[in-house]
Amino acid sequence: MIHKKQIYFDYAATTPVDPRVMQVMLPFYSQAFGNPSSYHKLGQDADAALENARETVARYLHCLPSEVIFTSCGTESDNLALRGSAFLARQERGANHILISPVEHHAISRTAQQLANVFGFELEYIPVDKFGQIRLEDIAARIRSDTAVVSVIYANNEIGTVNPISEIGELCQSKGVIFHTDAVQAASYLPLDVRSLHTDLISIGAHKFYGPKGIGALFIRRGLSVLPAQTGGGQEFGFRAGTQNVPYIVGMAEALRLAQSEKEERTQSLKPLRDYLIGTILEEIPDVQLTGHPEERLPNHASFVFHGVDGNALLMMLDIEGFACSSGSACRTGNPEPSEVLTSLDLDRDWALGSLRVTLGILSTSSEIEKFLAILPKVISKLRKLR
Amino acid sequence: MSTKPVVAIAMSGGVDSSVAAALLVEQGYTVMGMMLNLWNEQDSERSNRCCTPDSMALARRVASILSIPFYVLDARQIFFDSVVRPFIDGYARNRTPNPCITCNRIVRWDFLLNHALAAGADFLATGHYARITQNPDLSFQLSRGVDPSKDQSYVLHVLTQQQLKHALFPLGAYIKQEVRQLAREFNLPVAERPDSQDLCFVGTSGDYRQFLTRHAPHTQNPGLIMDQQGIVLGQHQGLAFFTIGQRKGLHLTSPVPLYVLAKDRHRNALIVGTSEQLGGNQLVAEGVNWIDGYPPESPLHALVKVRYKSHDFPGLVHIMSKDTIRVEFADTLRDITPGQAAVLYNGDICLGGGIISDPTN
């Protein structure tokens, strides 16, 4: 019943801060609290920590430290990348065309829509297949000489599908078009090597990989023109002015180091649990479909649609039973309109309204999965009877 | 594990449901908040008044102050189909529907109650001003709230024994001022919110006539205004825009105030007359619900309310069939209106009621 100990299955929404991460952050609140731009030793210490963190992030992205810009979150990184590159591409070469997928996070899709509606860019969507995956030829056919920027999400947050970013990057590179990828979900489990990904811009956010909320980074390939969104004291190589949030930046670097160096083990332990979860649900519950790609998906990610079930009521019932899950819609407001991502999969409304996302994390156990699998069929059948 | 009963409280972000939630928590129940996302006019600036983003944020805030979980359920379709559509159709058929009654019957005490029970609740509570007591034979009784100006048993007369068994009205024993005072004592940020109005789904103006014009354009159907002798006094824009007993909006010049006496559907005529001519001394009501679950001995003397805000009138109730009654009044009542409910009381006890039918039936 309610007030049960909650089991957390919403790691794609956010993750708890790893205690090891918290430890490295603490000194920068009180002892080493200096402003990295200051002249004195206290400032120099903060600056050293900041640049150390930048080097760590650069190491995992296989890029130069000067190509790493710290921002306040993944959304800000996406905004800076898309808006900043589109504006300057237009100014420098008259490029006015933006290509994105229909399965982008709102941080990209809403920004692109604003660029179209307010700033007069031409926005075009790349179609996706039934798994929400982008096909190379569909991008190739749409890239034009006046394409300013292409943005394709690395791994989708709602349906977990991983896109062929390397190939898309290569294609864009060969055509001389700027390519951005939102790697906010991918950063926990997938390689971020910009050399093999062939990307010009990559967004990440720390709280998806056991770092603190409110800190993100953007990789900007050296020499790329990006219009700063925030001007001021010239921090972050002029791309993002404002005193850096040193403890959070230090925390993000440590969290990324742990995620990237432990990603094999994390994947090894989570994927079997996730596969068991998906397999059992598909076998034991009638009228259910997996959403997203069956194999090429994030290893911790399971997402479904249940026919004839109200997704909101499902989340409520699961929460009451002690499971914190999510769906593919803006469910907080009781407005379960199918998301743009689910809509792009051509699901019937009766299916798309009953979405459920279960995302696992480093604290997930097989006993948690067993408990969940014991409850879910009952909840689904109760809800279907209510209709 | 807790053995306390689990109560789902229907929250609207208003003072009543917020205080009801706080009282339940104080009384030791395991409480969860539920809010319905109701239908509102498309393209209108605001949401349904009971569930604007503002109301929702307040309800959420109250829930967090009380440390109870809070869930929003989508009820837009069922609310439109069972409340808004019949409201529009009722007016189009020259009745004056009471959507709150339908909402209570179908949306709150069926849809929401069933969701609450499925979610493991033992009770559904609301911030209504009404009381439930249990009889020695274990059946349930519905009574008026103690605040006569706030009593809402009128809109709850549709409840069945099965629903009452799972219903809690924590505010039934309080008057409104006490509830506002309690809201302050509980430090709820809703203490000074104005009382909610009827017709939560009608846009900003709150004017149902504009709403009808938008959603049922055929209600714009000009006709004649005449007196009982058939003498033409003016023109109206559509019978749907008038209700029995209405005085304003007739735009007639007359030495004495004129009131809507009746709507003559066949001639599309609005019949008006003086206050002395207004009213009737009997009514027929259909779809009657008896709180006890079965009709009492007929005929029976009861106090009758023919509108939410009307006074009690003593009447003699004849039970015509399982769900039809005819009520005779000693006095002449001014506002017996088809579509509104006639609700019967024995003192403070609500016996049940039904929807007043057209006089031509």
Sheet with the most strands, sense and barrel status of chain A: 7 strands, mixed
CATH superfamily of the largest domain in chain B: HUPs
Quickly name the level 1 CATH class of the largest domain in chain B.
Alpha Beta
Rg for CA atoms of chain B: 21 Å
Helicity level of chain A: 40-55%
Major beta sheet, strand line-up of chain B: 12-15-14-13-16-17
Task: Name some characteristics of this structure.
heterodimer; A: 387 residues; alpha/beta; Aspartate Aminotransferase, domain 1; Aspartate Aminotransferase, domain 2; three-stranded antiparallel sheet; 14 helices; 12 strands; 13% strand; globular; B: 361 residues; Rossmann fold; SH3 type barrels; Elongation Factor Tu (Ef-tu), domain 3; 3 domains; six-stranded antiparallel β-barrel; 24% helix
What's this, in brief?
The complex is a heterodimer of chains A (387) and B (361). Helices cover 42% and strands 13% of the residues of chain A.
What does this structure look like?
- The complex is a heterodimer of chains A (387) and B (361).
- Chain A is of the alpha/beta class and 387 residues long.
- Chain A has helices spanning 19-25, 27-30, 41-61, 74-93, 106-117, 136-140, 165-175, 194-197, 246-261, 263-284, 311-320, 340-344, 349-352, 366-386; strands at 7-8, 68-71, 97-100, 122-125, 147-151, 178-182, 201-205, 216-220, 288-290, 301-306, 323-324, 355-359.
- The mean pLDDT of chain A is 95.
- Chain B has three domains: 6-185, HUPs (Rossmann fold, 3-Layer(aba) Sandwich), CATH 3.40.50.620; 221-273, Adenine nucleotide alpha hydrolases-like domains (SH3 type barrels, Roll), CATH 2.30.30.280; 280-356, Beta Barrel (Elongation Factor Tu (Ef-tu), domain 3), CATH 2.40.30.10.
- Chain B has helices at 15-26, 53-65, 76-92, 99-118, 153-156, 161-164, 176-185, 208-215; strands at 6-10, 30-37, 70-74, 123-125, 130-134, 140-144, 167-168, 223-226, 232-236, 259-264, 269-273, 280-290, 300-305, 313-321, 324-333, 341-346, 349-356.
- A six-stranded antiparallel beta barrel of chain B has the order 12-15-14-13-16-17. In chain B, strands 3-2-1-4-7 form a five-stranded parallel β-sheet, sandwiched between helices.
- In chain B, a hairpin with a 2-residue loop joins β16 (341-346) and β17.
- The relative contact order of chain B is 0.13.
- The model of chain B has no long low-confidence stretch (mean pLDDT 90).
- At the A-B interface, α11 and α14 of A face β2, β3 and α4 of B.
